[in-house]
Amino acid sequence: MPALSGLTGCAGMGEWAYRLRQFNGHAELLNRALPVDAWLADPATPEATRQALQLALRLRAFAVRDLDLPDNASYQRYAALPVEAQGSVVWNVVAAPAHSLKPRTWCAPVMGCVAYRGHFERARAAAQAADLRAEGWDVYLYGVPAYSTLGWSNALGGDPLLSSFLHWREDDLARLLFHELAHQRAYAPDDTGFNESYATAVERLGVAAWQRAQGRSTEATPEDVVREQRRERWRALALAARSDLAALYALAPPDVAARKQARFRQLVDDLAVLTADDPGYSGYLAWARQANNAHLALVSAYQSQVPAFEALFHRLGGQWSAFHAEVARLAALPPHQRSF
Fold this sequence. Notes:
Layout: H1 13-32, E1 34-35, H2 36-41, H3 47-66, E2 77-79, E3 90-96, E4 106-108, E5 112-114, E6 117-119, H4 122-134, E7 138-144, E8 161-162, H5 170-183, H6 192-213, H7 222-251, H8 256-277, H9 282-290, H10 293-303, H11 306-315, H12 320-331
């Protein structure tokens, strides 16, 4: 998940207003959050919430002990969001040119430049998305259930557990917590792809370690195996489309617009074929029907470097401390000097 952008630094009046809204949005979440122990001690806490909080604490303890992720204030408090949040705490806007897969970036000190713009209010995100479309950008507006403050808010109580994700399936909750804690372990300003691919690699490797610790050598159930196979197939199709379009945009032929649309139609058709045999792909098909350059830019940011990070982990003997230390070293280098 993304980091929370735009909270510090020099800016114009419009940017200051944005950053103030971001700070206020996070402060509101912190004000809602209470220690997990308080929720567990409250007899009014629903049993499902109690069990989910206990699982979250076990996952956090595992992340600290076995994955060498930070042991700080994050994920020791819980906030129940208003019903209207509907599973999203922040709304992100991603924009890419009509004939490029390089996303627009927004910059702020500390976190650097990132390939998205986050808003606590969906209406503001939708308004920005509309403005960008009017300027000719390909735009993707989506809700996210969690974000990272990169550890800067730990003195204020840290990033809280949220009702937008607390009741997820066990492995999905593990993925999210491991991913977000990874952002607090190593972070490269100005490189969304590096940061998100690293965190995605941590969640994938971390979930496999969690499963082994629970006595599972594979996914818990056949249904889980199928879900992961669908996810991997979608990733492969999306990254293939991105590769084809990157080559097309580099050539910039006269009919680039028509060929772009044809490649996106092929992505839809590929997923429609899979959905006809397996309705479990329907969510991916819906995504493909809306997809544009911004969608593929985001997929690339989260996925393109994951194999390289996983290979680095294995080259270092599966030692988490050595892995995180090497990633932190790479993150401190200029982007052109980062070599896996």
